[in-house]
Amino acid sequence: MKKFGERVPQSFFLVVALSAFSILALITVFIFIEGVPIIAKVGFFNFVFGMKWAPSQGYYGIFPMIVGSLSVTLGAVIIGVPVAICCSIFLAEFAPVKLRNLIRPAIQLLGGIPSVVYGFWGLIFIVPAIRNYLGGPGLSILAGSIILAIMILPTVISIAEVSMLALPPLLKEGAFALGATHWQTIRSVLLPSARSGILAGIILGVGRAVGETMAVIMVLGNAVALPTSILDPARTLTTNIGIEMGYASGEHQQALFATGIVLLVIIMILNAGAQYAVRRK
Amino acid sequence: MKRIMRLKFKNIISIVCVFTLLLSVLLSSACRPKNSESIILAGSTSVQPFAEILAEQFMALHPEINIDVQGGGSAAGILAANSSTADIGMSSRALNTDESKTLIAVEIARDGLAVIVHPSNPIVNLTLAQVSAIYSGEITSWDALGDAMKKKIHVVTREDGSGTRSAFESLVMGKVAIMPQAIVQDSNGAVRQLVADDPAAIGFISLGLVDLTVKAIELDGIQATREHVIDGSYRLTRPFLFLTRTQPEGTAKLFIDFTLSTEGRRILNNEGLITMGDVPQK
Fold it and tell me: By the CB < 8 Å criterion, does B89 face chain A?
């Protein structure tokens, strides 16, 4: 039997750890209790693949928002990931120590800027630029993608950089010994070896992009129609909840919780994907 | 560490359950209001912000009274007044004949809706039918309205559930739906900002919030002004009503009297509404 002084802190930490878990359970259960009835009433297929969202008339179809979420996220990945990977290669391989010590905290700071500030900046600078130079209303998938691309940079850069720095030095030394140049080493040895870590970083970035709400509400235009170009406005699953929760009641409110269920499932799949990518070395 | 490992799975599950329960009990008890003299207002989300300001001022004068202002929409407000679940129901639309049989309505103010465009837009006048055609997606370009500017119209609306949107729908659109391609903004201010920035945009906001950054267009030749709302010639208006089931008495009467008093009217006027005092009695 252990001493009392050992057991008390142990059980205390257990209780704290479990309370975090309980909160997750509580929230999940609550969202499902609120959201499942409306999905059951409308029908799962009609809810997820329905094209018309008009809660005041009893139409609850979230397909345009699923498309909106996916297209904005895809746009953010296309714009953001190449930049992030180049940046992480530079930090891990090329940057002199002084420069690295300047850039790394700057990137971390980028991650600390509140999303509403990104949204406001996008609304004031990016939206008018798109309206003036590319046409359309400016509030568009493109504007959302640019903002989200910037917002996922810190996540993707830091995870990609860490996974490259964590590679055994033997790999690099071996490649040099075979006569490979620095760039050849990076391209054919380091990047492929760090692939799973980089992939995990991208997936976490995608998770961030899918879950982002405030910045996207401000620059996306929130129209509930299938977008036909990247200059069209769109609505994502998160912004649907964010924009309509103020006035929602009854079935409308339930439908927003049901939107949350779909979102939760998507995020869970992404997180599971990230875990899988990290474990598969 | 070993000790934790030895805990059976069953035990962990039961601890989780106990904690979930405990948390929910804590949360629900935290939400329960205190016991004091209180009345409940419920209904229109358009009236709600004004009622909240009134309630705040009223409670400053009467600290012993607690006023709880809830949303839910005009329909919910009418229902709540009818079933007496709220002491005062709030509605931002006129009652129909059935509803006015069972309820006593006090008009606390009127709100006008202005259709706004960019100040550089040369169009000054539209008919209600034209506005409806723009919002349904029938008219998509400004040149169809006689403007040389061959731009696509950027239609801006409010989110589903908003009182301003439902007023616009009932006053302008009738049975026709607003097209889903319309840009949705979640406040009067956001709509105004967007229209102020975009030369091709059209939107609608509360009349009291129109400023120099946007241009309110004439509807069927009538300017959107307070005077035209008061004399009834401007058609995009809606009444803000307080509803009670019986003649108001006690705290509810006190609050309604405060709303209709000079002080209450001053507050509402400052917030951009048009109050009863200015409206000629029929």
Answer: no
A248 touching B (Cβ < 8 Å): yes
Torsions phi, psi of B206, nearest 5? -60, 140
User: Scanning the structure block, which residue is given the tokens 């509400």?
Assistant: A217
- A60 CB near a chain B CB, below 8 Å? no
Q: Is the ipTM of this complex over 0.85?
A: no
Considering the domain architecture, whether residues B104 and B244 belong to the same structural domain is answered as: yes
Q: Any chain B CB within 8 A of the CB of A41?
A: no
What residues of chain B, 143 to 172, have a C-beta less than 8 Å from chain A?
154, 159-163, 166
**Tens digit of pLDDT per residue, chain B (282 long)?**
444 445 566 666 666 666 666 766 666 555 544 446 889 999 887 888 889 999 999 999 998 899 999 887 787 888 889 888 899 999 888 887 888 888 999 999 988 899 999 999 988 999 999 999 999 999 988 888 876 667 889 999 998 877 788 889 988 998 899 999 999 998 888 899 999 999 999 999 988 888 899 999 999 999 998 888 888 889 898 889 999 998 888 889 999 999 998 889 898 888 878 886 654 433
Domain that residue B100 falls in = 2-110+239-278
The pTM (predicted TM-score) of the whole model is: 0.79
Mutation choice for B interface testing from A247, A249, A251 by most B CBs within 10 A: A247
SS3 B10: helix
Interface check for B72 against chain A (CB to CB < 8 A): the answer is yes
Give backbone dihedrals phi and psi of B116, rounded to 5 degrees, phi first.
-120, 150
Which is the CATH superfamily of the domain at A61-165+192-279?
A: MetI-like (1.10.3720.10)
Instruction: Determine whether B46 is exposed, middle or buried from the number of CB atoms within 10 Å of its CB (0-12, 13-18, 19+).
Output: buried
**CA A134: distance to chain centroid?**
26
- Residues of chain B contacting A225 with CB distance shorter than 8 Å: 179-181
Query: CA B135, CA B179: separation in Å to the nearest integer?
Result: 6
Contacts of A55 in chain B (CB under 8 A): 160-161
Scanning every residue of chain A, which has its alpha carbon at the shortest distance from the alpha carbon of B5? A14
